[in-house]
Fold this sequence. Notes:
Layout: H1 8-59, E1 63-67, E2 84-87, E3 95-97, E4 105-106, E5 112-115, E6 125-130, E7 135-141, E8 147-154
Antiparallel strand pairs: 1-2, 1-5, 2-3, 4-6, 6-7, 7-8
Amino acid sequence: MRQRGFTLIELLITVAILGVLLSIAVPSFQSAIARNNVASAASVLSASLSMARSEAVKRGASVTVCKSANSSTCVTSGDWSQGWIMFVTAGTPLRVYEAPSGGVSLGVGPNQIVFTATGFASTAASFTACKSGVNRRSVELSASGRVRVVEGSQCS
Length: 156
């Protein structure tokens, strides 16, 4: 009668091969996570600006998006990496956006952007989502209120 199963030597060789493969794969996986964090931060900012424009047109009133450190009031210092809020009039925010995860910075940009009832932005702006060693993503807002995301060169 023949026995089925693995010997201890076969198991040790399999575990050693698996360890070598994981040591090769993990650094690549970490850079994929960093790229995803940058893309996600740019996407969230782009979507929030588009939503603010849409809300302004829908409500027939100005909607403001501004950087915020405390999720309730606008700030004039720092950058958009600390988070931002969207509101119709001073008071209760329509939406609060937390700081991007994974150590992604979101460039300085203007302190606030106001979308008029016609969908136009108070100013054209460009924000750069960046993390060291990863290709940057620029969120570009035109004065007409259109938003687009462009991939750029590697962050330093």
